[in-house]
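Instructor's aside before we start: the two examples that follow are unrelated to each other. I chose them only because their records fit on one page, so don't look for a connection. First example below.
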Amino acid sequence: MQPGRKIYFLSDFHLGAPDAASSLVREKRITAFLDEAAKDAAEIILLGDLFDFWFEWKRAVPRGFTRLLGKLAELTDRGLPVHLFLGNHDMWIFDYVPGETGVTIHREPVERVIGGKRFLIGHGDGLGPGDHGYKFLKQVFRNPVCQWLFARLHPNFALWLGDFWSGRSRKKSYENDRQWLGADKEWLVQYCRERLAHEHLDYLVFGHRHLPIDLEVRPGSRYVNLGDWITWFTYAVFDGNELRLMKRNGDGPPGNDTVITGAPAGKP
């Protein structure tokens, strides 16, 4: 990394939810942040669930989200690398989003060495013990035959159905998303412990959980969950030496934002 440059991590925008009006307000806030972050960014890494539901047909995509898609295209056109790790709500991004915006797509967690630090980066869905029902559904949703069959549905009906599924999923996990369950009940904490039993990683960075968490799982190894941009408006930034979890304060430069440590116990 060049001196003075930073890597920004964001996750879980869920654009489209709960309605078009509030989603648009959130989308404008996100694109304003990306403008600010781009001033000193070496990379921007998005950890999934940009949309509450997304599916690409060969000749059709969901309406809306033009501000975010346009901003991502603008950043990559300027030569800024943008990486997108697909989440459980936008796993059906295929070639349209990367083709139009220039982002690099990742479908699985990735290990990277950045500034001499070892990172594990991913969305976080389906990792750790439990959630067996979702793990089965994930295999179904990723199956090319099932994707082909879904693509046979008319987009009007398919998008209504997808929004219905996504809304149910969000409501089911809403309360858990707002409180810390304790390390022994947090699946991603248990997953981090399992990984760290076999190798050293400095930072394990995930989204999906919707709760901002910065927890030392083992000495010298931190699990960082990015929270979301529905309730918390949080992100992480790596300056080449240290990763910090931040909460947005207004729409000014990221340097004015608040550092978060530990695991929030309740509502924001």
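Example two begins here.
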Amino acid sequence: MSRCPFFRFLPALGPLLCAAMLLGGCSVQVNAFRDYDTPLAEHVLSGRAREKILVLPVRGFIDLEPDQGLAARRPSVVQDVAAMLRKAGDDPDVRALLIQVDSPGGTVVASDILYAEIRRLRAARALPAVTLMMTVAASGGYQAALAGDRIVAHASTVTGSIGTVFLRPDVSGLMGKIGVGAEVTRSGRHKDIGSPLRGSTPEERAIVQAMIDDMNGRFLALVAQRRGLDREALDDVADARVFTAAQAQALGLVDTVGSAHDALAQARALAGLAEDARVVVYRRRAMRDDTLYNPPLAAADAAPGLDLGLSHLLGVPRAGFYALWAPEYGAAPR
């Protein structure tokens, strides 16, 4: 069988295609299906009583941008959570929240908004909340966990990474190899700070570090306030390392090492609910044999198809400030 002649040119085209994708935002956007237009509906996971505990899933990368793929467009985590919170706000029978976190974090702004939206509903309705940590609840994911009154972590949960990072792709070396350059005219010497087209200067690195210190100071202050940490305990977590559940409990970052059943029991107790209080979740379609371990609506309700988010495939982030545990993006220690 003969080969298509196009494949002979792939080795030469590869570097040029990579550079074009990096500079163009690293995504191919082809939406073959409509965006979400089915309203959220309540699905009961267990219980028969009138009063309800709402499972609020916070899973995946916390962002304001929808997840774009070749054949699907999924709402962002913030959009999902905000929609669920609005629906819960209209239901007087929702008496408590179980915030289920499985996330390495995300952008600083999205993490701030997510935390604030949960706290706003809780304040408006005087709702008690328990956070249940799943596989990972790090950085911005840990910030979401702080929205609960109590935090329960599974024994194998990884948490912590309480810190802020500035990530930017650098394609200047690749551009030099393939003979591509860029001419930039600036209104000020720092106008293109963070550009992927060149390396950063020592002065620019100092500017970015000052911004990170400011943002991270707010994060640490929130941790100290919500968890009641003293100066010594705060110093132990300020280097942004990750912890096991037992280590996090010893530091005061979590209250209990337990299971989903423990977290639900604590939510019932805080809200003064009966044992048969309904545990509910919001989805756009029903799932057979539904439990709280099923995927949240963004993953479960997406149209089937090939997701060609090339930025994720190539491992190249958008430039910006992140509250994120992502060791694959880290620079070598200096």
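The chain is about 35% helix and 20% strand.
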